[in-house]
Amino acid sequence: MMISPYYYQLLVIASINAIMALSLNLVTGCAGQLSLGHAAFMGIGAYTAGILTSVYDVPFAVSLIAGGAVAALAGLIVGLPTLRLKGDYLAIATLGFGEIIRVAILNMGITGGPFGLRGISKHTNLALAATAAVLVYWTMTRLMNSRFGRALTAIREDEVAAVAMGIDVTRCKVLAFVISAAWAGVAGGLFAHWFRYLHPSSFAFAASVEILSMVVLGGMGSLEGPVIGAVVLTYAPELLRGVSDFVSRHRMLFYGALLVIMMLVRPQGLVGAGVKGLRAARLSKFQGFGRLQSSKLGQWIAAAMEKVHWKGSTGSDDSCVVNEHVSGLAIGPGTGSTGTGVGRGGGEENAGS
Fold it and tell me: What is the percentage of the chain residues whose pLDDT exceeds 90?
């Protein structure tokens, strides 16, 4: 079955956008660092790969790797000073970096300046773009299941607690920023060798916001979320073209309204179920929760909670017995402090002591 050139191009763009969304998700969703200049790394990779193939006749594979490497180097240079900042200050710093890169590209002769870079050979296809997206997704899965990924999650949840646990916060954030920039550089190389023309406006602030929207819409911190968000936001403006003439003329207005409604209805994103995404949500809903309810432990917890409610409502002084039941469940037998009445035996045996 042949795919029309129109839908073929949308699939290629969706694959490139998925790489960009996954790369930003590593920094923003997993590490909790808001970056508003991510399109700049894509621009660095795109122009590096495009110049190497069109001006210096470097093989495509080498130029693609070089684009990712140069973008990673830029991420290291920017990340070392800026990732010590937090919140709005980090966002402003990355926004300023994106504008610096755009203006630099606009005023450099080798990049074509305001006329853009032309004459890039076409090497990107759907198989290559989709394979790159799958490899980035697989790498992201391995990273988030590693010690490094757990450190990023700890930094996102509570940076002060992460420092107290001995995590080198600055090193982890800079490393995540470098890996994210490298993936964005590879996506830029694929972008350059698909459209065969580059212009600085393609990597402006609006592009960074669009990538961030994909991450937020899909679900920050999840694995499947950015991919789903990239596909939805790639196809949504095109699907609105065929609704009616009025919708087609004002499709960006309806596109923005759909995003607002989506954020109101589901602010956690389409997936938004933590790092493992849809798989974890499905398992927790249908397996873990059901088994917990049907097990003896689940019945014991339910009975204990009912007893806590009954004792609290009567104002009886014997409610400490129930509190010790709950403490025994949380702490476990033999681990409680003897001063609270939960000794090595746990439960009610030591309640009167």
Answer: 56
pLDDT averaged over every residue in the chain: 80
Q: Which two tokens stand for residue 175?
A: 């490393």
Residue 94 in tokens: 């990355």
Read off the tokens for 89.
Answer: 């200050």
325 vs 128: which has the higher pLDDT: 128
Gap between the Cα atoms of 245 and 117, Å rounded: 35
Rg (CA), the chain: 26
Predicted model pTM: 0.76
How is residue 17 written in tokens? 């956008």
Q: Span 175-204, mean pLDDT?
A: 95
234: helix, strand or coil = helix
Residue 3 is classified by DSSP as: P
Burial of 184 (0-12, 13-18, 19+ CB in 10 A): buried
Mean pLDDT for the stretch of residues 138-153: 93
From the CB of residue 205, how many other CB atoms can be counted at a distance below 10 Å?
Answer: 15
CB 242 within 8 A of CB 136: no
Helix ranges (DSSP H) in the chain: 5-25, 38-54, 60-82, 87-106, 126-144, 147-157, 159-164, 169-195, 205-218, 224-239, 245-249, 251-265, 277-283, 289-294, 296-314, 319-331
Transcribe 61-83 into DSSP letters: HHHHHHHHHHHHHHHHHHHHHHT
pLDDT tens digit sequence for 7-26: 899 999 999 999 999 999 99
